[in-house]
């Protein structure tokens, strides 16, 4: 690790880099609503510089995301380059303990899963919000139910492709994310758990958040984690494993299926106090919080004549000036800003979820 472990104003260390490779997406989930416009996306050299200096600053976990990262033509090559540097002992990248990818799974063919595995990806999280094709179609914003059904089939096949390639769910190498929107897919919770249990996959239920402005989020749309866990407890034996510091998920173990159910309760039980995540968008903007209105443009520090120490110092100064804790104050902030002409703030697909 670099010798300069950055701390923000709330004494939180930088540990995780969420790097968005592509803001565009092939789905249009109702809770995310990506805006597909063409950005000036960074090239591999620039992504590599960002990863390198972030490792020098102390990150030990890299999550590749989007938008839809499998749409990026740079993904496999980038993974390969990181993989090679991970073997070099003196390289800060060798301190990466975990490289993961979040995807909607639609393009997770056998070939793609194999390429990801062979190029050093450690873990995959596939987003899957429903098992019933009609509900799935609604969640991904697909009006044509036949196409929606086909897309669901591809995602389910993608999960099996990943498992068969070596992303073993029992070793935590494959997980499922499900966002639950009240009265839209809350009837899928047990079906999703059944699907995941059969494959010993950890399934993580995420509370629907007010990221971005185009999803028209309402507090009444949130299906709280507590409700999920209390209803699951009526059917399954769940042992409480809690939430590890710096992680987003609170976990419950089910001994019979040897798998976990998790909740990510950013609305009902925020975890800002140990939030260690920096997000960098595909066009090179750094965001220290999902709810920041503006990011910092790193492009001037990614051009040739500037040396890596300048980029490192820039990111360090961004982290050290950070004070974010939006989720802890969400309802106070929302109360104040209601009826006020709010600035639009960026969607999850741009920020990198
Ligand atoms: N396209 C990929 C996918 O869906 O997995 C990666 C990017 S997506 C923005 C990353 C994660 O953010 C997904 O698991 C998605 O469900 C979650 N997400 C998106 N919008 C959200 C919202 N408003 N509230 C909670 N989670 C959200
Ligand atoms: Fe795309 Fe992921 Fe957003 Fe769904 S959640 S629209 S798959 S970026
Ligand atoms: Fe981190 Fe911001 Fe989410 Fe709090 S609201 S956990 S600071 S991203």
CATH topology: TIM Barrel
Helix content: 25-40%
Cα distance spanning the termini? 25 Å
Percentage of residues in DSSP E strands: 15-25%
Bound molecules: S-adenosylmethionine, iron/sulfur cluster
Major sheet details: 12 strands, mixed
Q: What is the overall pLDDT average?
A: 94
| Low-pLDDT runs | none
- Number of helical segments? 10
Second rung of CATH, namely the architecture: Alpha-Beta Barrel
CATH superfamily: Aldolase class I
Overview features:
353 residues; alpha/beta; TIM Barrel; binds S-adenosylmethionine; binds iron/sulfur cluster
Task: Give a quick summary of the entry.
By secondary structure, the protein is of the alpha/beta class. The chain is built from ten helices and twelve strands. It has one domain: Alpha-Beta Barrel (TIM Barrel), CATH 3.20.20.70.
Explain this structure.
With 353 residues, the chain is of the alpha/beta class. It has a single domain (16-351), classed as TIM Barrel, CATH 3.20.20. It has helices spanning 44-56, 75-86, 110-118, 133-139, 145-165, 189-198, 225-233, 308-320, 326-337, 348-351, and strands at 16-22, 61-66, 98-103, 123-127, 174-180, 202-207, 239-243, 250-254, 259-264, 277-280, 285-287, 296-297. The protein has a 12-stranded mixed sheet with strand order 7-8-9-6-5-4-3-2-1-10-11-12. Helix 3 packs parallel to helix 5 (145-165). The longest helix is centred in the middle third of the chain and has 21 residues, at 145-165. The two termini are 25 Å apart. 45% of the residues are buried. One iron/sulfur cluster binds at residues 25, 27-29, 32, 34, 66-68, 104, 127, 348-349.
